[in-house]
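ERR on first pass: missing label on line 2. Operator R.T. fixed the label and resubmitted. Corrected input:
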Amino acid sequence: MQQQEIMDRLQQVFDGAFLDKVQVHRDLSAKDVEEWDSLAHVSLILAIEQKFGIRFRLGEVEATKNLGELADLIAKHLAKV
Amino acid sequence: MSVELGMKLLRQYIELADPAFASELAARTTVANDFADVLQLCTMRAHARRKGLFPRQARSCRLAAIGGANLHPLVDFVDHFVTVLGQTECNTWVGDYDNYYSEILEEDSPLYGFKPDVVLLLPSERRCTFKGSLASARADQEAEARRAVDDMLQLCETIHARSGAEVIVGNFRLSPYFDPGPLRSTSLISDYAFRKFVNMDLGSRIPAFVHICDVEFLSNRRGNLSGVDDRIWFESKQPFAPGLLVDVAREFAHLVSHRNTPAKKVVVLDLDNTLWGGVVGDDGLEGIELGTTSPRGEAFRDFQQYLLGLSKRGVLLAVCSKNDHEKAIEPFEKHPEMVLRLKDIACFKANWEPKSDNLRQIAQELNLGLDSMVFVDDNRAEIEIVNQFVPEVSTIWIEGDPSDFAPRLKDSRYFETRTVTAEDLLRVSQYKQETDRQELLKSSTDMGSYLDSLDMIGTIRSFNKLDAPRIAQLIARSNQFNLTTRRRSEAEVLAIADDPHYSAFTMRLADRFGDHGLISIVIGVVQGREFLVDTWLMSCRVLKRQVEEEVLNEILRRACAAGCEWVVGEYLPTAKNGMVRDHYTRMGFAKIGDAPDGSAKFELDAASYQPIPTKIRLD
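pass 2 clean. output:
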């Protein structure tokens, strides 16, 4: 899957999870989005896993600094499938 | 409609502020079963609320959730399901992770400050484990499991005592892993067997204000392996994998919304292509598909078996079919593979009138509300007509494959009860008796010949020890046909039985269709030359059956035997006994006094009394 396609799908997940429109981009992180608290984070990650049909390993998501790195992680998992 | 398309539609409705949003949201929520979809629906509901597109529900509920895990987003999903599907506005309060002991035990905890109507309790699964010696005796293992249940019940009791709230407690899922092998099924030292025992013991001991969210069952249903996700436990203390989380949220919400909804009492069945394959009117008795000679025939037979099982649980079966009556009853009478027979059907309507009319008729004849009925048909058009014209009736559309029919009913959730009482088991035969009597009443030309044909037998007995519980029950419950509404305990009934100043008796009634049991009670007091009727009551089931007349005959027999010259009766009005205001006058008494509160006294001369002839034969 191309980077752009991954970002598009992430946009769909964000649209489903947050009330206010959040435009996804590679530098985006939780501190930029008011609604993205620790509770929302749990739901967001579960929804992303389901959307892409992948499963992150324990600790992997925590290690990503922004959405760009998360997208790379998603790409890595997709390549394994 | 695909999930994607449904979500898109909802988005459009929000953008256009289309009021169709609310019903579409409910439809999408009903079928959504994966995590991301439910999350999205929650978000859209919040959006719509902001835009004034999703009105507040009229009912509301204060819902607290506590437990040994992170209860977000579980509770957010429960909130969504209760609001959208249960049409109840939810106010939620969520306890801290694994802090439920102190939240329950500390009197000034915020749990009680919140004043919840319902408390969801999801106890810690990890703590529900056998802690004794692996070599301990079975009895010790069981004792430990029971102590774990004692502990949970104690928590529930405390919650209820301090807040008055009902408690919905989640039980435990079972491990999907092979470890520890044979011990899993032979000893409670495995978590698997320990939790299974705890679940069973908990279920058999819960008080009325506790309901169980059967997580064990939900996890089994989905597949235990797919319900486990240890990674999200370690990362964020989520109790379940996302899919099971949705199932559990849905079930908690179902229990919140339906904990006091009574189960449906009647299932009304179509015949052709519902109870058998084919059309009996066209294909004839030999042409219909039913029985073990073909796979489809076997499936129809199996469906009938399930229905018979429902009826044994106390659910009435009725038939509503577009057919000639004679043709329709033929399989019930003659087909060797029919499981259901006419005796199993409480009410049978086969004619060419609209089904909506027939359903109203059935409700009337069974004396049950339309909202206690479920209508089952394979014809979509009939289902639509019923939905439109008698919306109180719930409907199940079964189609095509008869092997799907029983599962459709089994998953409908209409027939769930917490207990089965002896009364439930009798209900089916009692209703059948009542409809048979009504049939007879229709075919009889006048009341006299109808009563004659009932072959009624009455039994009159003085109060005695054996009858005392039933006498006390009837005295406590009778409101309508009750002249004085004087309540008496079982102990008082026994005292009256032994006191020679009283002349107290009961009457039972049976007829050719069945036994009504003990249905009328009189307590007379002999005061010199006067026989005072202190209590006279009767079950309304036997109105217009000449029981009143037969009871009066007995009163006079007893009055004369005691040497009394007149009988005095009283009427004390209540909100419910208006039907007997003129009872004594109807029975030939003369009014001798009345009071502004509506009470009155009546008198009847004993010497000149002629017994009233009735159609009841006294035993």
